[in-house]
Amino acid sequence: MKRMMMIAAMGAVTLLAATQGSALAAGYANPQLLVDTQWLSQHLNDRDLRIIDMRNSAEEYAAGHIPGAIYLSVNQIRLVLRESGFAMPPDYEIEERLGQLGINKETMVVAYDDQGGLNASRLFFSLEYAGHQRAALLNGGIGKWRSEERPLSKIVPQVSRTIYRIDSETQRVASAGWIVANLGRSNVALVDARSPAEFRGEDLRAKRGGHIPGAVNIEWTHNLAGDKTFKSADELSALYERAGVTKDKTVVSYCQTMHRGAVTYFTLRLLGYTDVRGYDRSWSEWGNDPTLPIE
């Protein structure tokens, strides 16, 4: 018991340290979910830290990555469906993947990519579903790291396999059935992270175009500044509150494949929204199912 209390205390100290700097200054309700390059550079040798490189190409990782980072493809944390799109993998697959990455309950996971958090946010969504309490994104990703001329490495770290048992938070994933049953409720908000053209049905990426009835369109890129860092809490809060997406509601984010929608999911959690869910099948399911209503 004492050891568990000590580990928890040490974890709290690490998380508190992670809030120092730009994330805390930006006013986020959950600043520990976003670490800056300065913090990461000072904690590269932490024993309880696992840095995950989630760029689209393993070749890019091999050419140079943040020291200590290991590579993970986004398709290794989502289930590729035969019919179309992706879904949250079964629990045993998530446990297997986290074990392969050498992650345990006390591990501080920091993920990055070069796309403004697209892939890293998808991992964050999976980790929240798994009940992992210590996960963050690197603000600005490897692009910001490089722009500051911080060191890169070609060394692939050796990782000791762990046994991970998830505490699945199933409410983090919304199904089509759940959404249909809650359409029109004043305490539920749907956020479509796709482009306006997709939202209007002009850019067709399924059998049907349009959006889920009642959804508001806030394209995922609106969460980011020009350098692919996240906008301040004031800017982001105003963006969502103007659209009626408030903290007292259950908020469901989606896109075409819950990729862009994962950035919205992460942003809302960063802002302190508590009941946030991701529709993992997204428009790849909804737009191809004629029994589901559309606007």
Automatic annotation (TrEMBL):
It holds the Pfam family Rhodanese. One of its GO terms (molecular function) is thiosulfate-cyanide sulfurtransferase activity. It comes from the Bacteria. Gene3D superfamilies: Rhodanese-like domain (3.40.250.10). The keyword Calcium does not apply. Residues 45-154, 184-295 form the Rhodanese domain. Residues 1-25 form the signal peptide. Its EC number is 2.8.1.1. InterPro entries: Rhodanese-like_dom, Rhodanese-like_dom_sf, Thiosulfate_sulfurtransferase, Thiosulphate_STrfase_CS. Keywords: Repeat, Signal, Transferase. PANTHER family: THIOSULFATE SULFURTRANSFERASE (PTHR43855). This is Thiosulfate sulfurtransferase. It comes from Candidatus Methylomirabilis lanthanidiphila. The gene is rhdA.
